[in-house]
Specification:
disordered C terminus; single chain; 2 helices; about 40% strand; 5-stranded antiparallel beta sheet; alpha+beta; two-stranded antiparallel sheet; about 130 residues; about 35% helix
């Protein structure tokens, strides 16, 4: 049985499809600490057998806006490729007036995103690995 999903995309109409959520990661909390900037990530399989990758940037910082990147791809290899190509700091305003602080913000957002992606992709590929064993 598949569910109906409608995913918001920045600068584009929402993506609507039927399918199932395969893996997700909410980055709002890191080691129990609430973050000011984070990513929510998800991978879906459509009823047609394609995949949808969702990367949502969230911020509580004044002046920074949310960003919603959602893309449909044909296979699991492209899922991994999209996560690796995505720049998690592209929309982070940070603190350009203070280069050291700005660099720390970008490094922190990037580090936490990379950890999330690694865990998410491990969950995503786990069922395929179990089927092979």
């Amino acid at each position: 049985m598949s569910d109906a999903f409608t995913l918001t995309r920045s600068g584009r109409p929402p993506l609507c499809f039927r399918g199932e959520l395969l893996a997700q990661s909410d980055g709002e909390h890191d080691n129990g600490k609430r973050q000011n900037r984070w990513h929510d990530l998800a991978i879906y399989r459509t009823a047609a057998g394609r995949y949808v990758v969702a990367l949502h940037y969230r911020s509580r910082r004044e002046g920074e806006v949310a960003s919603n990147t959602v893309q449909e791809v044909e296979n699991a290899a492209r899922v991994t490729h999209l996560f690796r190509l995505y720049d998690p700091t592209a929309v982070v305003l940070g603190h350009p007036e203070n280069p050291r602080r700005h660099a720390r913000v970008l490094a922190d957002v990037g580090r936490r995103h990379d950890i999330q992606v690694n865990v998410l992709l491990a969950r995503f590929h786990e069922p395929a690995q179990q089927a092979v064993s």
